[in-house]
Design a protein that fits this description.
The protein has 21 helices and ten strands. By secondary structure, it is α/β, with parallel strands linked by helices. The strands form two sheets. The chain has a seven-stranded mixed sheet with strand order 1-2-7-6-3-4-5, sandwiched between helices. α21 links the parallel β9 and β10. α10 crosses α13, α16 runs antiparallel to α17 and α16 packs across α19.
């Protein structure tokens, strides 16, 4: 019935139509496969606003088709109560031909994006077909000065110029023997409180709005929908959203993002509410929280002073500090200031208690030396940042998914929040600023990375701010600030990482040269070595076991080989330890 109706309608407008029935695993797959096989230039879809289901923006059919289309896409968005281009009472019955409503005014908003030229070209072709007027508008702030208004006019001219330049590369449906740029166009800069409001107001005076897809960030698109989608919801007139195919590179990047996004489950409203209550309950700075933080700090401090890894792992498992940090992530994801204040309060109080107890216990302890467990937490690098990001993502996923909640103890061990605080207290008690500063850098790295990774995972799992604009602004601000802090903290970590990588390569090079020389040298065996870069030179100190003195020629030759391998001058110091082999005669 739909085929007969569509063919009859198309014939009344002299449009050749070829119906295809296709078997496919899903409707989107069938559309995409057909478009690829038929080498289509355009996929034309309709979107009934308000019909999208939970977890999708436009619907389970439109979302994947728009994202993965191998060609241009146009979506006609309309409100169900006022179907576009259909006379009241008309229905798609067999033989029924709809009478299109008159199109006299066409609006094309632009901000200079890459999809606006295609929208403008289509608008001009429709304007010529219906004898309509075309208006291209740019929306700016109500307080915009003359310079901003002039920039708006330039954006409009750039769009029209880009349309003319792209005319040769546009698909056949967007070209015509008559030059579309010869059709008169009205240019206007509109003042409004927001882009969506300005376009909606201008669209109310038009019969049709054609708008190109916008270039918002992936986070904005996932959370709030793009500007064209918001315009379609707010505008009383039908809106055609146009997206131009921009090559295989972007196509496959979009496919990769879709695969990542679809791999994660979306929590139901009841599950999100349960997670929120659980995180909020665990983030409260009550008596239990302080008792567990205090006990964890005691265990961690004594474990660090003893150099016992097992004891330190026990402190990681006891500490409840991970939950307040995840509360920070959830507060950012939902734009919840009350939860944010609660999480910040709990985190700061827990940090202060852990550092204070560690400093007090160190001052009272007779054992006050820097063990390997302490020094290992004073020089964080980019590997520690990567571990913290993965830990934050794993923790947020585990706490949101009850099926994998058993992974939280392992996440707590990987995150390692209390031991760096213990090292800070130990460093402050010993008056060692380098130890305290290095541990502080490690904890700050863990805090920022876990917060950001946790917020991103919670967003992907379906957590969203309320519809109020203030909360969405808080989300953007929170993500932006956290990302900026992460980039800032990455600078010293990168410096330490590069230095450590250079030292590792130098050590490997020295070991290779020394092994080759001392294995070949009769009677000499390498005991240990140390090296220290000094200005443009490298100072190397060797300790060797030998049964006979090493010649100066051998030492000079060894220094030359080390210098050639390191590509730097070498200052070599050799400490020989004489050895004597003795054998006891049998009685």
């Amino acid at each position: 019935t739909l085929f007969r109706w569509s063919i009859h309608l198309a014939e009344s407008h002299s449009v050749p139509t070829y119906p295809i029935t296709r078997l496919a695993r899903s409707v989107p797959e069938g559309i995409l496969e057909t478009a690829a096989e038929e080498q289509c230039d355009l996929i034309l879809l309709s979107w009934s606003i308000g019909a999208a289901q939970q977890g999708v923006r436009l619907g389970h059919v439109l979302d994947p088709v728009i994202r993965r289309a191998p060609c241009d896409v146009a979506v006609i968005a309309f409100h169900p109560e006022r179907t576009p281009f259909q006379a009241e009472g008309a229905s798609p019955d067999e033989g029924a031909a709809e009478q299109p409503l008159p199109i006299r005014r066409i609006l094309v908003p632009t901000a200079g994006g890459p999809h606006a030229p295609l929208a403008t070209s289509l608008a001009l072709l429709l304007a010529r077909e219906y004898g309509a007027t075309t208006r291209v508008v740019y929306v700016t702030d109500p307080e915009a000065d003359a310079q901003v208004l002039e920039e708006g006019q330039e954006r409009i001219e750039q769009t029209l110029h880009a349309m003319q330049e792209q005319a040769l590369s546009l698909p056949p449906f967007a070209t015509d023997p008559h030059r579309v740029e010869e059709i008169p166009v009205e240019r206007q800069v509109v003042r409004a409180a927001s882009v969506v409001e300005g376009i909606a107001q201008a669209g109310a005076e038009s019969d049709l709005v054609l708008i190109g897809a916008s270039e918002e960030s992936i986070i904005d698109q996932v959370l709030f929908g793009t500007v064209p989608e918001q315009v379609a919801r707010a505008c009383p007139s039908p809106v055609v959203m146009v997206k131009r195919f921009r090559g295989l590179r972007r196509f496959w990047l979009q496919r990769a993002w879709d695969a990542l996004y679809s791999a994660l489950p979306t929590l139901s409203p009841a599950e999100r509410l349960q997670v929120y209550r659980q995180v909020r309950r665990g983030a409260r700075p009550d008596t239990d929280f302080f008792v567990m933080i205090g006990l964890a700090a005691i265990i961690a401090t004594y474990g660090l002073l003893q150099g016992s890894s097992a004891v330190i792992i026990g402190a990681m498992l006891v500490a409840p500090l991970f939950t307040p940090i995840l509360a920070l992530s959830l507060a950012i994801a939902q734009g919840d200031l009350r939860l944010l204040r609660l999480a910040v309060e709990s985190t700061l109080k827990g940090v202060a208690l852990a550092i204070g107890l560690a400093a007090l216990l160190t001052a009272l302890s007779p054992l006050r030396m820097l063990t390997q467990e302490i020094t290992a937490r004073t020089q964080p690098n980019l590997f520690d940042l990567a571990v913290a990001l993965a830990s934050g993502a794993a923790g947020a996923y585990a706490i949101a998914r009850r099926d994998v909640a058993t992974a939280l103890p392992g996440v707590a061990i990987a995150a390692a929040l209390v031991p760096p605080l213990g090292v800070m207290g130990i460093g402050l008690s010993m008056g060692d600023a380098a130890v305290a500063g290095g541990a502080g850098l490690l904890f700050t790295t863990n805090l920022i990375a876990i917060t950001l990774a946790g917020a991103v995972i919670l967003l992907l799992l379906g957590f969203r701010p309320a519809a109020r604009a203030a909360r969405t602004a808080r989300l953007r601000l929170g993500l932006g600030v956290t990302l900026a802090l992460l980039l800032i903290i990455s600078l010293p970590l990168a410096v330490v990482f590069v230095r450590a990588a250079r030292e590792s390569r130098a050590r490997q090079t020295i070991e290779h040269v020394l092994d080759a020389r001392f294995i070949a040298a009769s009677g000499a065996e390498l005991a240990s070595f140390e090296f220290q870069p000094i200005d443009t030179e490298v100072e190397i100190t060797l300790k060797v076991f030998t049964s006979r003195p090493l010649s100066q020629t051998f030492i000079d030759d060894l220094r030359a080989q080390l210098g050639n391998a390191l590509d730097r001058p070498v200052r070599l110091r050799v400490i020989t330890i004489p050895i004597m082999e003795m054998e006891a005669a049998p009685p």
